[in-house]
Design a protein that fits this description.
heterodimer, A: mainly alpha, MetI-like fold, 14 helices, 77% helix, 0% strand, B: mainly alpha, globular
Chain lengths: 278, 296
């Protein structure tokens, strides 16, 4: 417990300074928000003025003039399906690595973590060729399998460091009661990994939700792809209709914002665990 | 018999890791390893016939002016991002850690830009930077600093820095969280002891806090360097590598030669060089961290 101390003049200065910095940090987001509710003419005439009326034509135009609805469905599907499969696959692997130490699992840990160094840009060309070979290029399955494969490195790091804090006794008791290792993991250990799973889903899911290059290059052209890809293509296409792009921007930010507000502590935990080990 | 027993494979472990291992090998390791092979070819990305050309791609990389330009741009952008991101993140962490009211609110607000996608952040800033209709020039005119208005992304002297500003804004909150965790791990006992011994706030920071969070600093700096090397989305939406080649980085060059110019063999070779740079940075970090540990 910290002793309660009386606020000093320094506290006031720091507080005011932080408010000022926070407003500066928030400004670009507020700028996008206010522009989404202004007509194009208003944006061009006075970009920093607040909207005068509650103007929603931009959002109507966005859905009428483009297939933005499909893009939203794609973004949601890619994120949800990938995360479900990641949670089915990655914690199990980390569990075996942490709980069954041996030469095989020791090597595997290093092997998995080495992937954190490999940039996606290096292997994307051969990856796409491989996807064509498996006939998953141009389908949702392409990005999904790559997202899962790409999450193994960070996921192993995160789960292994968390597993060290989960006591072994309960697992041993389950084993004595005749539980198979598979059941022990899913029934006993996995529920205890909740906070770690929270961090994993949120940080990794945000990456997928915001990803651009993979869906842009892998999903079939001529149709809407994902929210991020649609926004990028609007920037090129509707050079004169910033209002529409801003409306799309808000639709992209709001879900991330809601998830962040609801699950803030998982963000902090995941980032610090990832940072602690580099 | 005993020998056999020793070599027994842990089948349970194998079963648990099998799905992850399979996907990881198929969709990360295999394409990575085969990219070393493709980097030795003149593959265009489409035709089934692939010609082996030895080290010609690498020779071209190290002699072409375009790669040299991309390398310099990457160094400028990456160093700018890492230095300012870390300086800002550390200052913010110290401020948030010491603020009397609303610590959690400030932490959340400063983290918000991290949530935004690279494309969206690039778009928002591109419009703010716009010469005729942008918020920044409009603001400068309103406060009587009209002389300072300029084409922020079009002025080739500052294009890279302007892109860097977006990345610093977007990334500082992330590193701030890691610094905050580092600061919170510094025991208050040590600080109080120093206080009793008569050390002022500046001295306490310089001689106690700073050495104790040097590990965090090394990790953050390396992380931000590696992330800086991989910047792509903002460049794509803000400048497309331009004007001319002024904002073409290694990653952007890799993408452009691969997809727009149909030279995926060459692009992959550029990727291999990038991987080499990342491995060197990581090794340096490990060495540095270890030498620090010995000191403490």
């Amino acid at each position: 417990m910290k002793a309660v101390k009386k606020p000093t003049a320094r506290d006031f200065i720091l507080f005011v300074l932080l408010i000022f910095i926070s407003l500066l940090f928030l400004y670009p987001i507020l700028f996008a928000l206010q522009s989404a509710f202004k007509s194009n003419g208003e944006i061009l005439k006075n970009p920093i003025a607040l909207p005068t009326t509650f103007y929603v034509q931009n959002f109507k135009d966005l859905f009428e003039q483009s297939d933005f609805f499909t893009a939203i469905v794609h973004s949601v599907c890619l994120t949800v399906v990938s995360e479900l499969l990641i949670i089915l696959i990655v914690p199990m692997a980390a569990y075996a690595i942490d709980r069954r130490p041996g030469r095989f699992t020791g090597l595997l840990y290093t092997f998995f973590l080495a992937g954190m160094m490999v940039p996606f840009h290096l292997y994307m060309f051969p990856l796409f060729k491989e996807m064509k070979f498996f006939h998953i290029f141009g389908t949702m399955a392409g990005p999904v399998v790559s997202y899962i494969a790409g999450s193994v490195s960070f996921g192993t790091l995160l789960y292994c460091s968390f597993l060290k804090t989960v006591p072994l006794e309960i697992e041993e008791a389950a084993k004595i009661d005749g539980c198979t290792p598979f059941m022990t993991f899913w029934r006993v250990t996995f529920p205890l990994l909740g906070p770690c799973t929270g961090s994993m889903v949120i940080l990794n899911g945000l990456g997928i939700w915001n990803d651009y290059l993979m869906p842009y290059l892998v999903l079939p052209s001529g149709k809407a792809k994902t929210i991020t890809v649609e926004i990028a293509s609007f920037v090129g296409q509707y050079t004169a209709r910033w209002d529409i792009v801003f409306a799309g921007t808000i639709i992209s930010i709001v879900p991330a914002l809601i998830i962040f507000i609801m699950f803030q502590k998982y963000f902090v935990k995941g980032i610090t665990a990832g940072g602690a080990k580099g | 018999m005993k020998m056999k027993h020793k070599r027994k494979v842990d089948t349970v472990a194998l079963a648990f890791v099998a799905p992850a291992l399979l996907l990881y090998v198929l969709f990360v390791i295999l394409p990575t390893v085969s990219s070393f092979y493709y980097s030795l070819t003149s593959w265009d990305g489409i035709s089934p016939i692939i010609h082996f050309i030895g080290l010609a791609n690498y020779r071209e990389i190290f002699t072409s002016a375009r790669f040299g330009n991309a390398l310099i741009n990457t160094v400028i952008l990456t160093v700018f991002i890492s230095v300012f991101e870390n300086a800002l993140a550390l200052i913010l962490a110290l401020a948030v850690d010491n603020v009397h009211w609303g610590k959690n609110v400030f932490r959340s607000v400063l983290y918000l830009p991290v949530l935004i996608s690279g494309i969206v952040s690039g778009f928002i800033w591109k419009i703010m930077y716009n010469y005729n209709f942008g918020a920044i020039n409009s603001f400068l005119k309103n406060v009587g600093l009209g002389n300072y208005t300029q084409d922020w992304l079009g002025n080739t002297k500052i294009t890279l820095i302007m892109i860097g500003v977006v990345l610093v804004w977007k990334g500082a909150g992330y590193y701030m969280i890691i610094y905050l965790a580092g600061l919170q791990s510094v025991s208050t006992d040590v600080i109080e002891a120093a206080q009793i011994d008569g050390a002022g706030p500046a001295q306490r920071f310089r001689h106690i806090t700073l050495p104790l969070i040097s590990g965090t600093f090394t990790i953050n700096f390396t992380l931000s360097l590696i992330n800086g090397l991989k910047v792509f989305d903002q460049i794509s939406v803000m400048t497309d590598g331009g004007p001319g080649f002024t904002s073409e980085t290694i990653v952007y060059l890799l993408y452009k030669v691969g997809f727009n110019e149909g030279r995926q063999g060459f692009g992959t070779a550029v990727g291999v060089v990038l991987l080499f740079i990342i491995i060197v940075l990581n090794t340096l970090q490990q060495k540095f961290l270890r030498s620090r540990e010995v000191q403490i």
